[in-house]
Amino acid sequence: xxxxxxxxxxxxxxxxxxxxxxxxxxxxxxxxxxxxxxxxxxxxxxxxxxxxxxxxxxxxxxxxxxxxxxxxxxxxxxxxxxxxxxxxxxxxxxxxxxxxxxxxxxxxxxxxxxxxxxxxxxxxxxxxxxxxxxxxxxxxxxxxxxxxxxxxxxxxxxxxxxxxxxxxxxxxxxxxxxxxxxxxxxxxxxxxxxxxxxxxxxxxxxxxxxxxxxxxxxxxxxxxxxxxxxxxxxxxxxxxxxxxxxxxxxxxxxxxxxxxxxxxxxxxxxxxxxxxxxxxxxxxxxxxxxxxxxxxxxxxxxxxxxxxxxxxxxxxxxxxxxxxxxxxxxxxxxxxxxxxxxxxxxxxxxxxxxxxxxxxxxxxxxxxxxxxxxxxxxxxxxxxxxxxxxxxxxxxxxxxxxxxxxxxxxxxxxx
Length: 415
What we know:
Blueprint: E1 2-3, H1 7-13, H2 22-28, E2 33-36, E3 41-43, H3 46-53, E4 58-59, H4 91-100, H5 111-128, E5 135-137, H6 138-143, H7 145-155, H8 162-176, H9 184-211, H10 217-223, H11 233-264, H12 266-274, H13 279-289, E6 296-301, E7 305-307, E8 310-312, E9 318-320, H14 322-325, H15 360-377, E10 382-383, E11 403-405
Parallel strand pairs: 1-2, 3-9
Antiparallel strand pairs: 2-3, 4-6, 5-11, 6-9, 7-8, 10-11
Region (Disordered): 60-82
Keywords: Heme, Iron, Metal-binding, Monooxygenase, Oxidoreductase
């Protein structure tokens, strides 16, 4: 199916659909591969998305886009090389392996396990901060500060500098959201300044870790642990910046979307409060039902690809609608029902294939601890706005705010 130029893109990115994009996705799935004339090919069904995520002919490198179809470049990584997120094998594999070596198995298999206690303490302290209130904005008071603090601890940022990271992360996150009412030039200037300050800080921290390594992820990356040749300074900067932004952004939305879903399904909230073991399949179902990353809009074939009766030419832009694939009835029975005990839940919430989210184990653990403790400690929580105000970003979808009211706090029994 070919639409008039830009019509599908306008529908997908239209803010009117942000609170509930799933009826639109259901319409799109009637044509598994649709084409905006002279625009992207949009893939919306599970098996087609899954196949392309595992197809080595589909590139993540924007330099492989046909220049006639490429959008205007965005200077989000100004002065830095592309992160491995935007590269193809073998260069992607080299950088990803170097980043993963200090993050978890097989090189440091106990890192996440040993972080569980620290994550639980951070969550407990944040919830303790709700004392004396009867309402909060979950995003500002919990979902945002939690994962940023975790990334700082993981990278080895001194605690006295964590507040600066919170500021930079907030500025860069805001820059990801289109805002028609804001001064575009001023937003760009502010974001560029934040990136420059962050790069300068990280560069200095890298040199400190080179002189005096610690037991942190940045020290390990500087030392070049892993099977491949170590990263150069610019690659270290690019990877550290990626970990800060991508490493916390999905978790902010996962926790916020998760709490919103639980409050809309109070029976599940009660079950989680009574049985914390439910949280593992519950988080997997959240990743299917309302994933923080809705789509992957930067893909292009390295050669012509035939899929679902459509030929996608070399260099054409391709959008993979992960959230639509997660609601595909051809893959998931009763897909619009939130079912924490769903069987065979091989969702696309963290992508799949060589570019699957390498931070997924940490994001899962953060969400499991956060949602368990929120369910256990908030006494009779309720939504104050439904639907809440959403961010304008159609890719990283989540509420901009989530105002909650509650009647008190249960004591923290973990400390």
